[in-house]
Amino acid sequence: MAPWCYQQLLTPFTFEGCCNRTVFELWLEFILIPTLKPGQTLVLDNATFHKGGRQAELLEAAPCRLLYLRPYSPDLNKIEKCWSWLKARIRHCT
């Protein structure tokens, strides 16, 4: 996990296994939010673990804004290009 901000990855977080709401909220609360400045906006895609839970509450307390991409909008999701490149590099090394 890592957000894409100003052409760079911020607060990368790796773990073994699948991401779920608990993992995402822990990363959000203890790793990402402490680095955000008040008024910043976090844009999330529509992954199931991005919805529900405490995300909105955590960001509101930051105070930051939460926006969701519209469904099926990979062209608007700039982090996807980064993940694609990174996964290709990892596959090439193994």
Automatic annotation (TrEMBL):
**Pfam families per the UniProt record, alphabetical:** DDE_3 (PF13358)
Q: Which residues form the Tc1-like transposase DDE domain?
A: 5-92
Tell me the domain of life: Bacteria
Do you know which InterPro entries this protein is assigned to? RNaseH_sf (IPR036397), Tc1-like_DDE_dom (IPR038717)
Locate the coiled-coil region(s) and give their ranges.
none
Its protein name is Transposase
Q: Which organism is it from?
A: Limnospira platensis NIES-46
